[in-house]
Amino acid sequence: VAGNVHPECDFMVELKKKEAECLEAPQEHGNATSPGCKRTWDKLLCWPEADAGEILALPCPNILFHFMKEPAGMIKRNCTKKGWSDPFPPYHVACPVEDEIPLEEQSYFSTIKIIYTVGYSVSITSLIIAVTVLIAFRRLHCPRNYIHVQLFFTFILKAIAIFIKDAVLFQEEGIDHCSLSTTECKISVVFCHYFMMTNFMWLLVETLYLNCLLLSSLSHGRRYFWWLVLFGWG
């Protein structure tokens, strides 16, 4: 798979790796009907095979050490004739971790989202008015203003793409962003990056066009304009 894993997803990737190692390991007991418990993965630890009546104790998973609030404890499971018992003490008691975002951080992120949502909304409204004015009045029709309109469109489309991306990625609070790979997610991210790129490209087009006007006669401006349009959106 191309690309690097986000640091916040390292935990999930490591769990998947441990699960694969656990389930792919060969079983020691050849007879599946013999009394005892088979090797099992409980989403955090790999419990080896055990005989009926045997009690196994395993330390907290290594991948939890960076998140733990207290020293690591031990988790035990009893192998009964009916199978493995529930872990005791429970994981959240034996391996307490910092799994809650502080209220200060929640408030900070909420404030940031409100600020950029209001900012983008005001920008979209202002830019739509500006585009309407530039298109409605014929006396304003010229290559330079056409480039302004294209640039304004990139700002509008970039803001809309960000709103769509947020709606797709954060439609549910409990969504797993590390394993999220839906078509809607990919399309929204691609369009968001594309419109951000075109926004910078049209800023460059503005500079190139003004430079062309300074280096050549004004009559050649329209000829340069169509090449710059292709460059800006291409």
From TrEMBL:
GO biological process: adenylate cyclase-activating G protein-coupled receptor signaling pathway; cell surface receptor signaling pathway; positive regulation of cell population proliferation; positive regulation of multicellular organismal process; regulation of growth
Top-rank taxon: Eukaryota
UniProt keyword annotation of Cytoplasm present: no
Membrane topology term: Multi-pass membrane protein
A cellular component term, taken from the record's GO annotations: plasma membrane
Transmembrane segments: 114-137, 146-164, 200-218
Molecular function (Gene Ontology), one example: growth hormone-releasing hormone receptor activity
SUPFAM superfamilies, sorted: Family A G protein-coupled receptor-like, Hormone receptor domain
Chain ranges of the G-protein coupled receptors family 2 profile domain: 21-99, 112-234
Cell compartment(s), UniProt: Cell membrane
One Pfam family this sequence matches: 7tm_2
Task of the protein: Receptor for GRF, coupled to G proteins which activate adenylyl cyclase. Stimulates somatotroph cell growth, growth hormone gene transcription and growth hormone secretion.
Record PANTHER family: GROWTH HORMONE-RELEASING HORMONE RECEPTOR (PTHR45620:SF14), PDF RECEPTOR-LIKE PROTEIN-RELATED (PTHR45620)
Family to which this protein belongs: Belongs to the G-protein coupled receptor 2 family.
Name under which the protein is recorded: Growth hormone-releasing hormone receptor
